[in-house]
């Protein structure tokens, strides 16, 4: 409900047109902020941050790897919140937000996996280790892909939104259990302590570029998410237009198609 | 409660009579377990080591195969709409359907496991452990699977999507089930801890599964 007091409320965004106009105004600023922080972060990561005394230059992979991993988890939290918004309050933009976040989260998870693997090759000597962290991220990636597949198989966007919201919430309950069980499994099968990514404390010369990259990645996520949401709203409008067009254009055959649809 | 018990008996009858396909799962389980030694080689020592894991994977695949049948037939003939309209809580109806499905498809797997374990040269204590963990763990697979079955019930060919959605969620069951079964035969690894965790996973899915599946079915029939 748009609030009468003139103050901004979350329900103002329930109107897709209003969301499009707000996000359209804000997007250029966010894109500019993303470019600036990303440039600063990448510069610091590649030129000012010192190489690690053990891992050498490969430690720079961390500046991509760690923010990707954070974002992979943040995308899932946003999907969980959106799913609650979809199921409890039936907020019209909640499932648009959930649908838009899923592929982005999947890509960040894939980024974390690939950079982790590239980092693992010189450090551990193999591309892949069945380490608890890597394994649980692989499972998170599969969960993301399953959700994207679910969105893509159910035709009606409202029904797809409902199904995906339930699956997302079931996943959010189960992901900690999966993570715990994988850690348990890993310590059982493999001696721990094989890989410690960082020492006890992180030096500020590493921490500042890392945090900058984290901010840059979060901004990047916001921009991509908003853009994907705008596309999704427009895609749904086109779908509605197509449907109504088909309904009026084929008025004479409607009765025929209806009866054949019933036979199916 | 008589409505629920008659639903239970109806589901069991439908599953076990002609066209129900309840025993197809056991047949599949037998074939998967038979294929494994051909892939691995007839080394009895290796097979007895891998036995519990192979049996668990076989049981998981056999369970996945039958999951789409939980709600599919009721959706096709309209029974599901009537069940949604009934005065019984829909979550209870889902639980009853899941239990009936488990008895018809997963209990035969549990009963077949000791015989198949003999083929894989698993020692007697290991056979008991595998059977016990399957008995405790397969309900979890059914209840998690019910969520996937409910989400994909409106789709024509939902079986593959169901497997993709469900498999990551079954990882804890596999981990704790195989660990407990292996812990019973190898010395330093414990049996009790993973077994209790397996029970915990089973119990929690018994709560989450029906609630989520009922919500999904309500959404699909709207």
Descriptive tags:
heterodimer, A: about 260 residues, mainly alpha, about 0% strand, globular, disordered N terminus, B: about 220 residues, 10 helices, elongated
Question: Could you please describe the fold and organization of this structure?
Answer:
The complex is a heterodimer of chains A (264) and B (222). With 264 residues, chain A is mainly α. Chain A has one domain (26-48, 60-186, 204-244). Chain A has helices spanning 16-48, 62-89, 94-124, 132-153, 157-189, 204-249, 254-263. In chain A, helix 2 (62-89) runs antiparallel to helix 3, helix 3 packs antiparallel against helix 4 and helix 3 (94-124) crosses helix 6 (204-249). Chain A is globular. Chain B has helices at 2-16, 24-40, 44-67, 69-77, 79-85, 90-119, 124-151, 159-166, 171-185, 192-221. Chain B is built from 10 helices and no strands. Chain B has 222 residues and is mainly alpha-helical. The longest helix of chain B is centred in the middle third of the chain and has 30 residues, at 90-119. Chain B has one domain. In chain B, helix 2 (24-40) runs parallel beside helix 6.
SSE diagram, text form:
The complex is a heterodimer of chains A (264) and B (222).
Chain A: H1 16-48, H2 62-89, H3 94-124, H4 132-153, H5 157-189, H6 204-249, H7 254-263
Helix pairs in contact in A: 1-6, 2-3, 2-5, 2-6, 3-4, 3-5, 3-6, 4-5
Chain B: H1 2-16, H2 24-40, H3 44-67, H4 69-77, H5 79-85, H6 90-119, H7 124-151, H8 159-166, H9 171-185, H10 192-221
Helix pairs in contact in B: 1-6, 2-3, 2-6, 3-6, 3-7, 3-9, 6-7, 6-10, 7-8, 7-9, 7-10, 9-10
Report the sheet-strand fraction of chain B: under 5%
Number of domains of chain B: 1
Secondary-structure-derived class of chain B = mainly alpha
Tell me which protein chains meet in the greatest interface and how many residues each side has.
A-B, 28 and 29 residues
In brief:
The complex is a heterodimer of chains A (264) and B (222). With 264 residues, chain A is mostly helical.
């Amino acid at each position: 409900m748009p609030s009468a007091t003139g103050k901004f409320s979350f329900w103002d965004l329930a109107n897709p047109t209003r969301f499009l106009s707000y996000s359209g105004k804000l997007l250029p600023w966010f894109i500019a902020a993303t470019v600036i922080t990303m440039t600063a972060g990448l510069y610091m990561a590649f030129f000012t941050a010192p190489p690690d005394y053990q891992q050498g230059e490969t430690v720079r992979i961390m500046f991509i790897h760690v923010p990707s991993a954070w974002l992979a988890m943040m995308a899932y939290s946003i999907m969980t919140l959106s799913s609650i918004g979809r199921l409890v309050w039936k907020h019209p933009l909640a499932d648009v937000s959930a649908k838009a976040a899923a592929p982005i989260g999947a890509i960040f998870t894939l980024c974390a996996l690939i950079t982790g693997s590239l980092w693992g090759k010189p450090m551990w000597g193999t591309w892949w280790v069945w380490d608890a962290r890597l394994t649980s991220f692989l499972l998170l990636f599969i969960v993301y892909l399953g959700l994207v597949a679910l969105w893509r198989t159910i035709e009606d966007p409202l029904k797809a939104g409902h199904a995906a919201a339930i699956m997302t919430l079931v996943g959010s309950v189960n992901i900690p259990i999966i993570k715990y069980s994988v850690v348990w499994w890993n310590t059982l099968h493999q001696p721990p302590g094989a890989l410690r990514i960082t020492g006890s404390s992180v030096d500020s010369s590493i921490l500042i570029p890392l945090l900058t990259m984290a901010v840059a990645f979060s901004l990047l996520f916001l921009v991509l998410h908003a853009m994907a949401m705008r596309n999704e709203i427009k895609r749904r409008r086109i779908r509605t237009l197509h449907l109504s067009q088909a309904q009026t254009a084929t008025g004479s055959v409607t009765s025929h198609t209806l009866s054949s649809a019933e036979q199916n | 409660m008589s409505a629920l018990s008659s639903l239970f008996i109806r589901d069991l009858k439908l599953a076990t009579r002609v066209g129900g396909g309840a025993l197809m799962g056991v047949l599949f389980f037998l074939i998967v377990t038979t294929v494994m030694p051909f892939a691995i080689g007839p080394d009895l020592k290796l097979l007895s080591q891998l036995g519990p894991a192979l049996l668990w994977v076989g049981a998981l695949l056999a369970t996945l195969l039958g999951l789409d049948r939980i709600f599919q037939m009721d959706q096709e003939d309209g029974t599901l709409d009537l069940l949604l309209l009934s005065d019984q809580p829909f979550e209870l109806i889902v639980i009853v359907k899941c239990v009936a499905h488990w008895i018809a498809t997963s209990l035969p797997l549990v009963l077949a496991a000791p015989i198949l374990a003999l083929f894989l040269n698993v020692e007697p204590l290991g056979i008991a452990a595998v059977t016990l963990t399957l008995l405790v763990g397969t309900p979890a697979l059914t209840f998690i699977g019910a969520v996937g079955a409910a989400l994909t019930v409106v789709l024509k060919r939902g079986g593959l999507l169901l497997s993709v959605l469900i498999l990551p969620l079954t990882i804890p069951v596999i981990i704790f089930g195989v660990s407990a079964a292996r812990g019973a035969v190898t010395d330093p690894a414990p049996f009790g801890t993973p077994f209790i965790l397996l029970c915990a996973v089973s119990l929690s899915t018994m709560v989450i599964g029906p609630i989520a599946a009922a919500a999904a079915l309500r959404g699909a029939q709207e």
